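Same chain as my last thread, 311 residues:
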Amino acid sequence: MTSRDHMTSDNPATVTVVTGPLGHDIGHVTAYLGRNLGDGLAIRTVQPSTLRRRRTPNPHGAPHTIDLGALPSAWQNPDTNLGVAVAPQRFNSPVGLVDTLDQIRDDISHLERAGLSPAHRLTVQGASGAHHIWPAVEYGDLAAAARDHVLRASAGGSRQVLVEAGDGQTFLDAFGTVGLPPWSPHIERLELWLVLDIARLVSGASGAIDISGMIGEEVARQGGGTNGRGEQMPVLRVALCGFHILVPEVYGHGSAPFALSPEQGGPVSKEAADRVGDIITTVEQRAGTVVGLLGTGTGPDGYEQVIDLSL
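reply #2:
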């Protein structure tokens, strides 16, 4: 969704917010959405009481994935600035805050063992004593950093901020934790993404079921969909992970092969592609939202594959 009717440049100041229900892993989708951040800013908002680990892709060698708890999932580009924003302490126990700081230390250690060094580009907000986590880690105001150093940057640099929530946080929770309101005049384009895991929505022994109603409930909880008068609410995009559970033929396929027709040598039959389209249509009509990404499982390169419907 765009927050302005016009863009001030070809490099609009963009804020992307990604979240998902408690227990739904949003790591891979977040990393995909942040693949072009460059020297922008990736922020992870943390509520210590619900902090969960997420699987993130590692393009720098073995292992293929790294599990992180507190650091942002879009850490892969060495130019990207990283931030952790901890929700106000009054909502969390002191023990939870200590656990969060310990998790940041563990995450840094995991990445260093993989041959990476993220600490020098990491800022932590909302946790007193955070500057003692690691010598190179800074303690500061991420909203000011996002506004002054990224969104107001020159056209030559990245003007993108990615905020990763998850763990049941709403979009407004994430904005509130960072301190950057969605109506900020510094934001030219606002993108909202809700990540849902099909495996956690499908129930019973019958396998694939109509999950559009449950998707609609979560979309509504986030403030999207349609209201009681049938009016469209603020647009958000949905990413459906584990989509191969519903259509097994797409397992391990990304955008490029899926875009090929069977006559062109595509690996997915027309019948399977039609089933994909039918499910997407049903979800969009019943949930009042837009399906933007499909996660299809691990591909031959060892990484989770994504069918990006915007390509």
